[in-house]
């Protein structure tokens, strides 16, 4: 009787081991790759979602996630590149501006106020002063085509500071885009 039980246990173990080896060596016919980050070239990739969305990031343009639902932090990249077959996010570094004390300098940013969005600016008034903020529509006659917001600043004090531009709707707290300019005044 004990030899029969041992033989049954050995058969079960060998069958389980054989099944495990079989499963680990076969390639499934179809893999669920919803939200695939696989790409062949730069034309395959796209930024999906916005900062703060779940699933935001770089994906194959033909295989995006089904939603950005949920509350989680995600920093959406500025653009995507196809690197070694995977879509990878590219984050811009801060812009650098050198200005002379007492002189004016300008920052121009793409904008589209027909969407309700506009650039809000934050800076240290000890170093710089915002003189003028203007919107210039694009030359296109298409309704809602956007344009540029042009900011004119005056450098007031020697040293270094930063200007933070946040692209948001006035009634919302979260910006969808942020641009930071590091200013050196000499």
SSE map:
Elements: H1 2-25, E1 45-48, E2 57-60, E3 79-83, E4 86-90, E5 95-99, E6 104-111, E7 118-123, E8 128-137, E9 147-155, E10 159-168, E11 177-185
Parallel strand pairs: 5-11
Antiparallel strand pairs: 1-2, 3-4, 6-9, 7-10, 8-9, 10-11
Question: Could you describe the 3D structure shown?
Answer:
With 186 residues, this protein is mainly beta. It folds into 2 domains: 42-90, no CATH class; 95-185, Immunoglobulin-like. The chain is 13% helix and 40% strand. It contains 1 helix and 11 strands; from the N terminus they run αβββββββββββ. The strands form 4 sheets. Strands 5-11-10-7 form a 4-stranded mixed β-sheet, with no helix packed on it. A 3-stranded antiparallel β-sheet has the order 6-9-8, with no helix packed on it. A hairpin with an 8-residue loop joins β10 and β11 (177-185). The longest helix has 24 residues, at 2-25. It is elongated.
């Amino acid at each position: 009787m004990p030899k029969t039980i041992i033989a049954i246990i050995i058969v079960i173990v060998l069958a389980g081991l054989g099944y495990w080896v079989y499963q680990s060596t076969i390639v499934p016919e179809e893999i669920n790759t919803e939200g695939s980050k696989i790409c062949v070239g730069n034309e395959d990739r796209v930024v999906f979602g916005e900062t703060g969305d779940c699933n935001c990031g770089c994906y194959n343009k033909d295989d995006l996630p089904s939603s950005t639902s949920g509350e989680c932090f995600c920093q959406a990249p500025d653009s995507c590149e196809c690197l070694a077959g995977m879509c990878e996010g590219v984050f811009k570094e801060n812009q650098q501006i050198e200005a002379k004390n007492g002189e004016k300098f300008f920052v121009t940013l793409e904008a589209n106020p027909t969407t309700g969005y506009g650039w809000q600016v934050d800076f240290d008034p000890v170093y710089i002063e915002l003189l003028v903020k203007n919107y210039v529509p694009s030359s296109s006659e298409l309704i809602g085509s956007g344009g540029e917001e042009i900011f004119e600043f005056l450098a007031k004090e020697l040293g270094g500071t930063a200007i933070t531009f946040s692209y948001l709707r006035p009634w919302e707290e979260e910006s969808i885009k942020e641009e930071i300019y590091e200013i050196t005044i000499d």
